[in-house]
Amino acid sequence: MTTLPNSETSPLDGAQLAILNNRFEGAARKMANTLLRAGRSGVLNRARDFSACIVTADHQLLAAAESLPIHVLSGPDLMAASMQRFHPQLKRGDAFLHNSPYHGCSHPADHSILVPVIDDDGRHRFTVVAKAHQADIGNSLPTTYHGTARDVYEEGALIFPAVKVQENFETIEDIVRMCEMRIRVPEQWKGDFLAMLGAARIGEQELLALAAEIGWDQLDAFTHRWLDYSEQGMMDAIRQLPAGRISATSTHDHIPGTPVEGIVIKAIVEVDPAQARIVVDLTENSDSLPCGLNLSEACARTSALIGVFNSIDHSVPKNAGAFRRVEVRLREGCVCGIPVHPTSCSAATTNIADRVCAATQGAIAQIADGFGMAEVGAGLSPASGVVSGRDPRTGKPFINQLFLGATGGAATSGNDAWLTYLHAGNGGLCFIDSVELDELCQPILVESRRLVKDTEGPGRQRGAPSLEVVFGPVDCTIDVAFVSDGLVNGPTGVRGGGTGGASSQYLRRADGSRVAIDQVMVLTVRPGEAVVSVTCGGGGYGDPRTRDPASIRRDVQEGWISAERAAAIYGAQSV
């Protein structure tokens, strides 16, 4: 039987290291479970758009459980550092609300509660972070993704750069009242706020109990050993890659405030297996743009890291130890760099972040077969839009982001796509909404949700097909806000793989006719009308004519592709 050490025992062995890692991960999972069960909005309790993690006292990511990659790979470290910079004298009982993209948060819609874990001597030991995407944050439009906002003033978000919201475990109600006066459906926001506070306090108590059990010195020893172990795992993974320096691009569709040719994102990736290092250079990109697509520093770093982790051995731990071997080069005032206030970063977690990830993993795929990943489909179609209005059943206003469906998964060298990947920053970890619960909680009818045949990214390993969702209001008018990408620039394949299905969106009028609608807008949908949302598929990996014939037959039999496509694209003569 393996026993946990205490401060009097010998150094940690491998089994104890694994057990303590699971204890930290378990604390993060308890935090996440609290957000899921106590969250008021559908964004939390149905879609699971939240994360929970633990950061060391010197601001290194230690444990994140099943958190969304775009939320945690970088960001909690930067937020914890800004918390300590603004509040040098941290005390037990403190809690801070943070959503500032200029001080480490991913984007303003990701409200985060940071709680410093303080020992009995008043020493700061860890920081626990509960991050939860909000249904509304007080933007000028009823959406948390204001893609065309020319700056943060037009965006309208309330920005909290590590603002104290609890002292001595008592909530500072001034901040709460400010939010209730600005945020739509304030009782929903307050429920999520309380869920975040509860989650963070549970994480704090778990770490205090663990320290009481084995001692702070042993937790410090674990932290150093675990991060060193993770760094070694990353070194081993990088050494499996061939050396090379190559660039790749991925292009976001044009929207207002961007160049007519779209936003071309370039990643220069250099792999040095001898030194076990990877450099991702994002400095050769456009300056910040007068729109809401600019990345925060957290999302710029994270999206490059996602591209790297998508390209290597999946077993490498995702923490600050592994990050030591990856240098992400950014510049201030860049669309995918370090934003300067008042640049808008409203949609920083999705659109351009997905393009940085695509360029990074696409570049690694060019270095050698067996590595990298095709392009993941762009997201934020109307099926993932923010719906708002007044519910005729109650007479009360409502607002919530839908997660009615998205596919988007890209192929890797050895596997077909993950069907419900959603988008690169999400990593497939959000839930797809239950149709019945969405219809119960909002006055909408979901008419259909279906995969679209012959839209997969063809390849030796194929990308996901597109998804079509049709929904509309019931006995009322609703607004649907979205920032859709991928209509012009669909998800490309790598190493001979093909492009997956593009996105599209339509308004179906009461007479049954369809009219194409803008990619970025707040669409008013009236009784008898419906939104038709087609999401992107995902890119393929490798020449489709080298795909296993048995897999092609199965795809035809299951209805993923037609016999005609099997013959024309895959070269299958008999299926």
Mean pLDDT: 96
Strand order of the largest sheet: 2-1-5-4-3-6-7
Q: Span from first to last CA? A: 55 Å
Radius of gyration: 23 Å
Query: Beta-sheet strand percentage?
Result: 15-25%
| SS-derived structural category | alpha+beta
> Which spans have pLDDT < 50 for at least 5 consecutive residues?
none
What is the 3D form?
A: globular
Outline the secondary-structure elements.
Elements: H1 14-38, H2 42-45, E1 50-56, E2 61-63, H3 69-72, H4 76-86, E3 95-98, E4 110-118, E5 124-133, H5 152-155, E6 163-167, E7 170-171, H6 173-182, H7 186-214, H8 216-238, E8 244-252, E9 263-272, E10 277-281, H9 297-309, H10 320-323, E11 326-329, H11 351-367, E12 386-390, E13 397-401, H12 435-441, E14 444-451, E15 467-473, E16 478-483, E17 504-508, E18 514-516, E19 520-525, E20 530-534, H13 549-558, H14 563-568
Parallel strand pairs: 10-11
Antiparallel strand pairs: 1-2, 1-5, 3-4, 3-6, 4-5, 6-7, 8-9, 9-10, 12-13, 12-16, 14-15, 15-20, 16-19, 17-18, 17-20
Describe this structure in words.
The protein is α+β, with helices and mostly antiparallel strands. It is 29% helix and 21% strand. The strands form four sheets. A seven-stranded antiparallel β-sheet has the order 2-1-5-4-3-6-7, sandwiched between helices. β1 and β2 form a beta hairpin. The model has no long low-confidence stretch (mean pLDDT 96).
